[in-house]
């Protein structure tokens, strides 16, 4: 097994997205990954860019993910600006909570 998957990015260049490998439940719920960094496959930052992943049982690099035959894998794309907005909102809520404690 040495197949490849190519994720094609936006042709307009207006969308910056992050591609993540997620579990089946997260994919069906259209929910972001529990561990944001550990699940990141790649990011689309430029017009007509693409992300290519190789499906290998034994990764060639330390931070590559492994893929086994006869297993199902799920991917989801998230708008980067939306994720930053959500992160910022959560950060503000955390600060409000911390400063409200007497």
UniProtKB/TrEMBL annotation:
Name the residues that span the membrane. 73-99
GO CC annotation = membrane
Would I find Transmembrane helix among this entry's keywords?
yes
Provide this UniProt record's keywords sorted from A to Z.
Membrane, Transmembrane, Transmembrane helix
Which InterPro entries did the record assign? Cupredoxin (IPR008972), Ephrin_RBD (IPR001799)
Per UniProt, residues of the Ephrin RBD domain are: 1-102
| Entry keyword annotation includes Membrane | yes
Q: Which family does it belong to?
A: Belongs to the ephrin family.
What name goes with this protein?
Ephrin RBD domain-containing protein
Q: Which organism is it from?
A: Wuchereria bancrofti
Taxon lineage: Eukaryota, Metazoa, Ecdysozoa, Nematoda, Chromadorea
């Amino acid at each position: 097994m040495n197949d490849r998957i190519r994720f094609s990015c936006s042709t307009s260049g207006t969308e910056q997205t992050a591609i993540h490998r997620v579990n089946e439940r997260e994919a069906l719920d259209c929910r972001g990954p529990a561990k944001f960094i550990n699940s990141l496959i790649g990011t689309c930052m430029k017009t007509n860019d693409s992300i290519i992943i190789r499906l290998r049982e034994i990764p060639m690099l330390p931070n590559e993910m492994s893929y086994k035959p006869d297993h199902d894998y799920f991917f989801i794309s998230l708008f980067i600006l939306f994720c930053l907005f959500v992160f910022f909102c959560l950060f503000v809520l955390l600060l409000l909570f911390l400063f409200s404690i007497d």
